[in-house]
Amino acid sequence: MERRFIVRGLLVGAIGGLLAFVFARIFAEPQIQRAIDYESGRDAAQAVLDKAAGLTAETAGPDLFSRTIQANVGIGVGMIAFGAAMGGLYAVAYALACGRTGKLRPRNLALLVALGGFLGFYLIPFIKYPANPPAIGHEETIRDRSGLYLVMVVSSIAFLVLAVWLGQRLKPRFGNWNATLLAALACAVAIGIVMALLPSLGHLHANVEQFGRHPTETPLPLKDPQGRIVYPGFPADVLFNFRFYSVAAQAILWAAIGLCFAPLAERLFAETAQAPGTAPEPVTA
């Protein structure tokens, strides 16, 4: 049964990744191009300042792949592979949740697991560390940013799983509704504490050293030695649009996984129940 779950999870994940790519290609990719254009203009302005100061500007090497390949084949293959990976993990989580989350139909459980995946893998970490376009950010902080984001993902998933466990424990005493609210509140408090303890990206060493302490590392206006602005800060509209479309693309991915997997899971349980000499596998506690 678990193997059949995983095969279906990989399939629906790839479908979700494809749908998310189509959306991102139409709406998010133009924002990435605007971010690249901004970075190029900012680098040119910085080169002028460096030359005036007698410094030698660094020359960037050629890209291994053209921008067209990156925006189409590269992102497309990457998002489909990412979707398949998320679908495989989703299927494992679904198999583990069967029989441990109360009297839920396979279809409803599939949707709830997908919602948990969207919250744990993306939305909750996004609240602390919202996405920036690929061209925006300091190379010196890539490792720190990756590590911090991973901590948020692991913490979010762990607290969501603990919230489900706590809700099941509290249900006999407080009832289903109150137990769910108490577990959700405990989860929110725990995640809030983690968010408060982790540093903001603008507080990382490389950013503080160059710009001072700020909530994010989104580029501020570039100034000359006299303090005059020679290049504006990163456009707020582009940043908002990119983040909005990023959340929407992830929502499409997880919605596709949940909605496509739900009927497949229910059908699989029905086939198992009808198989001669096979007892139906329980989905209730």
UniProtKB/TrEMBL annotation:
Keywords: Membrane, Transmembrane, Transmembrane helix. It comes from the Bacteria. The chain crosses the membrane at residues 73-97, 109-127, 147-167, 179-198, 244-265. Pfam families: CbtA (PF09490). Signal peptide: none annotated. This is Putative cobalt transporter subunit CbtA. It comes from Actinoallomurus bryophytorum.
